[in-house]
């Protein structure tokens, strides 16, 4: 009894001392925390729309619950299922063509002995990373237009046929993937070049003494040396396989492909949600994408760690 | 700093004929890749500096034909374009300042291991990188806050960036010795003065990096403007360009964009593209260096 009475004020005293010392840190945190709660966590409550039959008049909270009806609708209709499949398809293509490019480029750059040549090349290939998607799309749309684009003008002047790069749905996907690779390959080399820096120079020297050629050294020293980085980045990319950049797809889109090849989850949410006002379907689609995304990241983090890599989270 | 160096290889190795062929092919391929990155840009720049006639007759490749500054004269004389530029600068500056305040005030307390609740708050911040409400709930929030179709909708929501907070926190933990802060505390300094007199002055490289992350991100983004800005006089530069280039594909935006996208010549379009890229090009040497720094700090964790 007496000891309990004695510890309570002691605890209080301790808490008071703690706060006297640390209150400035909490005040600092209050500012970002309030932004975080308002702009990140409050919208999460809106996800209940995914389980409601949303009506503009009733609002989020007044609308009727309808269980998983929205999801049933999404997965029973071929147009929304196609959107999911198309998202997967473009991402797989991105991965197949986009993932190896920075690795190859980094190894090629590493084999260059002239410092100035390397620096100039790096400066140039980093540039696309800094351009907005509107600018990138503008550059390529200007070049690839069927009638007046530079590529078609040149090929026509050499007797070739004019190719509808942007109007044809298959070609559009080729263009889409190409531009993605174009935009990200240079910037992607940074992380691999840093990993290559970590490889001991002695390994290369020893290999040289043993008479190993350039390809041999790349295969037996450089590639094993960046294995960890490659695995981590690959797993990270797999975790984003259902993600979709709205700005990239939307800016490269046009009326010929908008409902076919350029029809991915992010643009679907925009079109069905904002343009057509079907908030509940769009929210359900977004929630589906988000949940799968988090699950994939958790799984890939687990895989990375089980492979002895540092993991992502 | 974090300039990217490659592993040193003895340069005195004798190169056989195979080595020389390898070098030639390697250099040639890299030149081709570099040209591929540059040529689309050069083409549009050449168009912006050519006469309308030369562009229409498709004579322009990578060098201006009939050098002409007509495009630039027209674009700089266009009041709506200048207005859009000014708005974009204002938005970018405001966004960057706010973003930096949030980032510093979030990152510094989280470096204090003895802070109670640190783990929970850090988790709350990080969680937002992987999960969010999505477009529709965020759109409704803009409505509820009454900032839909105002510039605030482009400044406030994205200023909180968990990724940048991680970078800032990693930098402070790795580069600012705890003994320095302790010495200041012994002199009776408060957390405020330690933050402003010790931590911030020692964090200049990372602060520059994060400023550029915020600024370039804001300058280049158009998605949120497309969602939230409906009045054409409030269009930021990228969104204006989006409509100008005829990128709007859906009916809702065709109606909206119709008013904004007047029939425009190719030269003027090309000039607008250059115009919106100019700040990036001017800042490019800094951007490149500091972005690489940021990538390296971010790669440690995150």
Features:
heterodimer, A: 313 residues, mainly alpha, MetI-like fold, 2 domains, two-stranded antiparallel sheet, 2 strands, 1% strand, flat, B: 302 residues, 15 helices, 71% helix
Overall geometry of chain A comes to flat
CATH homologous superfamily classification of the largest domain in chain B: MetI-like
Query: Into which percentage range does the β-strand content of chain B fall?
Result: under 5%
Instruction: Quickly give the structural class of chain B.
Output: mainly alpha
Helix content of chain B: over 70%
Q: How big is the Rg of chain A?
A: 27 Å
General description of the model:
The complex is a heterodimer of chains A (313) and B (302). Chain A has 313 residues and is an all-alpha fold. Helix content of chain A is 73%, strand content 1%. Chain A has a two-stranded antiparallel ribbon. In chain A, helix 6 crosses helix 9, helix 7 runs parallel beside helix 13 and helix 14 runs antiparallel to helix 15 (279-306). Chain A starts with a helix and ends in a 7-residue tail after the last helix. With 302 residues, chain B is mainly alpha-helical. Chain B folds into two domains: 17-68, no CATH class; 73-300, MetI-like (MetI-like fold). Chain B has 15 helices and no strands. In chain B, helix 8 crosses helix 15. The longest helix of chain B has 35 residues, at 266-300. Chain B starts with 16 loop residues before the first helix and ends with a helix. Residues 251-263 of chain B have low confidence and may be disordered. Classes of the chains: A mainly alpha (313), B mainly alpha (302). Chains A and B meet through helix 1, helix 5, helix 6, helix 7 and helix 8 of A and helix 1, helix 4, helix 5, helix 6 and helix 10 of B.
